[in-house]
């Protein structure tokens, strides 16, 4: 039986993991609070959230493009808040990986979706009739 005392290695590892988890939760909570404040500001001012195009997360690093009111305000806050900046960087990297995976999947499978399948089946049925 393992005793939970300050000298026990399992106890120390568990506490260390809990401390890390608490810090992550606090950081994400702070980011969400900033995002809620941005949303409240846009709502109060009656401004649209979205822009015309370029709203993909992987394109957020492109400063020559207007990403819309919400994302531009998030980028502005990220310039002075390291926690928001870290979260944006993480999201951009994840988005890039997802985009590359999708592009690779398209190369393997092709651009055949449900529409092509429906067209193929409908041609088969009409030729039999």
Kindly describe this structure:
It is a single chain. The chain has helices spanning 9-45, 69-80, 82-109, 114-128. The protein has 129 residues and is mostly helical. The protein is built from four helices and no strands. 71% of the residues lie in helices and 0% in strands. Helix 1 (9-45) crosses helix 2 and helix 2 (69-80) packs across helix 3. The longest helix has 37 residues, at 9-45. The chain has one domain. It is extended.
Helices and strands in order, then pairings?
Blueprint: H1 9-45, H2 69-80, H3 82-109, H4 114-128
Low-confidence stretches: none
Distance between the termini: 76 Å
- Overall form: extended
β content, as a range? under 5%
Number of domains: 1
Mean pLDDT, all residues: 78
DSSP strand count: 0
Q: What Rg is obtained from the alpha carbons, in whole angstroms?
A: 24 Å
Total of DSSP H or I helical runs spanning 4+ residues:
4
Helix content: over 70%
- Summarize the biggest pleated sheet: none
- The ordered string of helix (H) and strand (E) elements is HHHH
Structural class by secondary-structure content: mainly alpha
Short overview:
By secondary structure, the chain is mainly α. It contains 4 helices and no strands. The chain has one domain (9-128).
């Amino acid at each position: 039986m393992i005793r939970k005392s300050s000298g026990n290695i399992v106890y120390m590892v568990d506490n260390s993991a809990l401390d890390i988890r608490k810090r992550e939760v606090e950081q994400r909570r702070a980011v969400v609070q900033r995002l809620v404040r941005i949303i409240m500001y846009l709502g109060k001012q009656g401004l649209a959230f979205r822009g015309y195009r370029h709203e993909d997360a992987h394109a957020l690093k492109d400063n020559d493009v207007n990403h819309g009111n919400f994302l531009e305000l998030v980028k502005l806050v990220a310039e002075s808040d390291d926690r928001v900046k870290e979260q944006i960087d993480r999201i951009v990297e994840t988005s890039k990986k997802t985009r590359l995976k999708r592009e690779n999947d398209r190369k393997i499978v092709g651009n055949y979706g449900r529409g092509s399948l429906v067209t193929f089946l409908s041609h088969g049925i009409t030729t039999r009739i």
